[in-house]
C-alpha cells in the first residue's frame, strides 16, 4: 500500500510540474503557445515558414474543460511533443480585449472575433490550411474545429489527421479515429 501511495504521489507531482501555468488573464499558458500580434495572416505565414500548421485555441478564465485539456491531455508527452513539433499555436481569450485580425482583414477585440466566428464552447480549437483564400474569415477556412474538451486519443488523432491532411481524403475524421483507436487502446 505504501508503494502504491508513493507511486501515485510521484505521478501526480510529475503531472503538476508539467501542467501549464495560469497567466494574468486566467488562461493556461504553455511553452508551445506563441505570443504574437494575433494577425492570423501573419501567423499563418510564420507557421508555414517553420513547416508547421496554424492552430487557434479559444479559452476562457475558469473553464473546467480547458483545465482538463491542459492538465490531462496536453501534458501527455506524446501529445505535447507532437504539438511542439507540428503546430504554431495562438491562444484567444473568449472574453478578452486584445485585437485579433482575421484572414479577411477584419480587426476586432478577441471577444467580438469569437462571436463573429460563432464559437460557443471552450476550449474550441481551429485548425487551418497552409493557404487561405482571400476575403474569408477564419471560421470559413478552418479545415477542422474541435469544440470542447476531448480525451487523449481523440485529441492526438485529430492533431495527426490535420497534419496528414485527412480532411482532403475520403476518410472522415470519425472513421480515421475509429481505425487508429483500435490499435491505440492496446
Question: In whole angstroms, how far apart are the ends?
Answer: 27 Å
**Sheet of most strands:** 5 strands, mixed
**CATH fold assignment:** Glutaredoxin
Global geometry: globular
Reading off the top of the CATH hierarchy, the class is best stated as Alpha Beta
Please indicate the percent range of residues in DSSP E strands (runs of 2 or more): 15-25%
Taking pLDDT < 50 over at least 5 consecutive residues as the criterion, the unreliable ranges are 8-18
* Gyration radius over CA: 17 Å
Question: What is the H/E order?
Answer: HEEEHEHHEEEHEHEHH
Pfam families: Thioredoxin_2
Domain Thioredoxin-like fold: 47-134
Keywords: Signal
Signal peptide: 1-19
